[in-house]
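Exercise 7.
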Amino acid sequence: MNPIAGIALIALGSIGAASFYVPFKKVRNWAWESYWIVQGLVAWIIAPWVAAWLSVPDGTLGSILSSSPSSAKLWAMFYGILWGVGGLTFGLSIRYLGVALGQSIALGLCAAFGTLLPPIIAGENLFSTSGGILTVIGVSVCVLGIVIIGYAGALKSKGLSAEERQVAIKEFALKKGILIAILAGVMSACFNFGFQAGQPIEEAAFTHGVNPLFQKNPSLIFILLGGFITNFIYCMFLNFKNKTFSDYTTVSGTILLNNILFCSLAGILWFFQFLFFGMGSSKLPPGMAIFAWSILMALNIAISNIWGILLKEWKGCSTKTLVVLWIGIIVLILSTFVVNLE
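Solution. The predicted structure, written as tokens, is:
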């Protein structure tokens, strides 16, 4: 066990997750639904299979998957489908609120629900062990940081004119964005439920000699397949409704290659969060492993807000707003180190 190494690995994943929306700014002449499903094909279908194939002993992936209980694979996929609703609306929350505020609200709720509900549903008493108590404290500090950042977002919205909001975020819509972000956060927590359901798959991987660092990779195949199904159905519906199927065929070869490359980069960056999450959580003490999800979400929020600053989404805000924002970011980062108190 090495908590510092675990947090560092999870932080690497957070950098990818918080950065995944940036390449979309280079996509040209495609509607949202077109570039979203292309990155999803890479993030939710191609990357999980490649990662699982590369991280298990030669020739054992098929044996691992065939020896895993069908119920575990189906439940993992089911929770992936529910998470897909969160992933889908998560993209919309960023579209309407921006990288900083959109990720803060959605991921904050995801951190709380995804960390606390699985052990509660399993009948565990989080207050019966020091690890459980620290988990509750860590999540509470995380939520405090989210509240502070949310307050910074409210100050930002109050201090900017409608024209200034449109310059920073072209489709800024506060009320719609907040409602979508709440839905995204609650449903996105189902991803951690998928990991819980996929534990028999992890056990099968372990018996086939898979390094514990990569033990969660086979489970990702099924969780992310479920997420892809949800997003594929919705994006195809939007392609039909908005008559944007032509996005894939009418652009020039140069633009098509450009869009595929940047969407693929977005998908790879997005997948990194769960690749490194699985690696990092394997380094945490057993009693604190459930807090790994909160660490991932807290770092995602902190780094996404730093990106928001770099992308000038907070341009024109008062000094007070920026100070509150940085306090929230620092509190979120500090919440991740509660794991080292045990």
